[in-house]
Amino acid sequence: MRRALLAAAALALAGAAWAQDGSDTTARAQKIIGGSCFLCHGAEGESASEVFPRLAGQNAEYIAKQLENFKNGTRKSTAMASMVAELSPEDMVALGRFYASRPPHQEVASDAALAGVGKYLYQAGNKWSGVPACASCHGLTGAGSATLPRLAGQHAAYLENQLKQFHQRARNNDNAVMHTVAEKMTALEMAAVAEYLSGQ
Asked: Which CATH number is associated with domain 112-198?
């Protein structure tokens, strides 16, 4: 807990420092992205592969936190652990701000019927099984917040995989609420919500 608080404080101080000195965060971020991030996430965070999340339009603070979590091992990923090993808190803030400034991706959901089920679940939840409305935390448009991810426009397969990880308790960061939510969701519900959000 103390380690997490210290990491959060470091990121906050880094963000404040950037705001005060007016440094060019875009140039810093683009240098890092051009060195490695673009291989999976694209030069603008557009990610053509469903294996890797789209970062364009994602909330800056959320991205910085995830990078820190990958670095300290709170969030597990063999691939990401090596990518973030040398990143400083300032680098994480720069990357978060860069991706947040990119336009989010939009596309039409590939399965309209499934997306319709997902829309209902996202907006109203499932009162029969106790699944809450996703919109109650992530917002009606799926834009999220500083502490919660933007879900709108994300790859359906990626979102579904994250829900499965929360369901199986394989993802242990951001889990205070998500374990409780995902454990009540069926495979169909996960696929439906993911499909709906991919088209938003």
From this structure: 1.10.760.10
